[in-house]
Amino acid sequence: MTKALHWRIVDASNPAVISEFSSEEFEELNAMFASMLGCGGSKENLEPSAERCLQILDKLDWEQLKSVGNIVKVNGIKGAVQEVRRMSKDLENEQSWFDDEVDEMPALFDLKEEDCLENDVGYIFELLRYACEWIKKSIPQRHNSERDVDVFVKTHIFSCLDDITDQHFGEMVSRASRDRRANARDSLDNAEGYHVDWMFTRHDLSNESWGQEFSMCERAGSKLENKSKILSDTLRVQKTIRDMHKALIKDIFAVGNGAVSKPVLNAFTKLLMPGFISSYFFIRTILVLYVGAGFYASIQLSEFNIPTTYEQLGDIVNIAREMLRVKV
User: Membrane-crossing residues (predicted)?
Assistant: First the structure.
């Protein structure tokens, strides 16, 4: 039995756990996550304007992406959209020369000028802009503290969540984790919750110090070699996300004086809770879901390396897509 199972968490990304599943059980668990994600493919989850933007940016080379990122700083999102529309026309014209040699492609080059008003499109271009800035400043190449990478890099990656959550960072204690430990049978009088590096909350939904907790990010360190910590153990994050979900359900019952409608209860018990684990210029995203009978399941949604050179700017497209999937 793995440690995760001891805590009633089924880690669907752990081969040791999956080996104990029948093929039918594994397919059922995957189907549960897929239905919660609305999966018919990741592209179907994004706003059309964001998908248009990501598709065309994915066709540009790193030099073009660098040019677009620099334009954002000078001319804003609208100027960047206009430049990408111009580039897309050039790509479309180039493709027309080879129509007889390649399969016909779907229309990718329909980024609209009014798309500059969409928040998700703004996030994509701003992320590209700041990636160019941290590369220009050689931040990845210098010695960094954990907080340096948070402030100069990861704040921009997580900024897509700004309009739906509040953010806190700097060694906070999760109240959800603290309450679970304090109420345990063998708890100590001075039991503390899990110390969290980043926390995503909603202050308008709770009077707790950090508000209603929804997600977190654990930092494994600012050095490349710390990445092994991420790969070897995600249990603390899984447990804390589970505690946040339990606290949310508890608060829903408290607001309703113990009476909650079945549709509301079903909606919240099926709520996907994201968590992040980071080290150096790397982030892994996991999802935690209540599956019934007191058990939770966890699955790895994505992992990505953050660009450290201009030649890697194409990775920004993947990062933006995965973060917007989490937002959805």
Answer: 280-299
Q: Within a 10 A sphere around the Cβ of 109, how many other Cβ atoms?
A: 19
Digit-coded pLDDT (tens) for 32-43:
777 766 654 444
Highest mean pLDDT pick, 87-91, 154-158, 185-189: 154-158
Question: What integer is the mean pLDDT of 275-279?
Answer: 91
Distance CA 157, CA 131 (A): 9
Q: What DSSP string describes 228-279? A: HHHHH--HHHHHHHHHHHHHHHHHHHHHTTT---HHHHHHHHT--EEEEEEE
pLDDT at 130 over 90: yes
Parallel, antiparallel, or unpaired for β 282-292 and 166-173?
unpaired
The answer to whether the beta carbons of residues 125 and 77 sit under 8 Å apart is yes
Calculate the dihedral angle through the C-alpha atoms of 141, 142, 146, 148, rounding to the nearest 10 degrees.
-100
Q: What is the DSSP letter of 167?
A: E
**Confidence at residue 183, expressed as pLDDT on a 0 to 100 scale:** 65
Pick the closest to residue 326 from 159, 147, 79, 115 (CA basis): 159
At residue 219, φ and ψ (nearest 5 deg) are -95, 125
Helices (H) and strands (E) in the chain, counts: 13, 7
Q: Return all residues near 55 (Cβ < 8 A) that are at least 6 apart.
A: 108
Q: Is residue 259 predicted with pLDDT exceeding 80?
A: no
CA distance 94 to 87: 11
Instruction: Compute the mean pLDDT over every residue in the chain, rounded to the nearest whole number.
Output: 82
Closest CA to 174 of 226, 232, 227, 217: 217
Q: Return the structure tokens found at 48.
A: 């059309």
* Phi, psi values for residue 118, rounded to 5°: -85, 135
